[in-house]
Write a structure and sequence with these properties.
The chain has 71 residues and is α+β, with helices and mostly antiparallel strands. The protein has four helices and three strands. Helix 2 packs across helix 3. The two termini are 16 Å apart.
């Protein structure tokens, strides 16, 4: 599910570095807020996203490269 979340974030940002609300992205892929929080923690620990404040996220260069590689 984290791969799907990361792909959706990439798609929503048009492959650029844009800040999004984590719960907006999570709802786009059918996740609850709790599930979204768990996935955010995993992706952050892998260095694929950066947390900004309480609910904002940004895809890192590593996250972008990982998503483009898996296409």
């Amino acid at each position: 599910m984290s791969d799907e979340f990361l792909r959706k974030l990439y798609e929503m940002s048009d492959g650029d570095y844009k800040i999004f609300d984590r719960y907006r992205v999570g709802s786009e892929v059918g996740l609850s807020n709790s599930q979204t929080d768990d996935i955010i923690d995993d992706l952050h620990n892998m260095g694929l996203i950066k947390k900004i404040g309480e609910t904002k996220i940004l895809m890192t260069l590593e996250g972008k490269q990982d998503t483009e590689k898996s296409k």
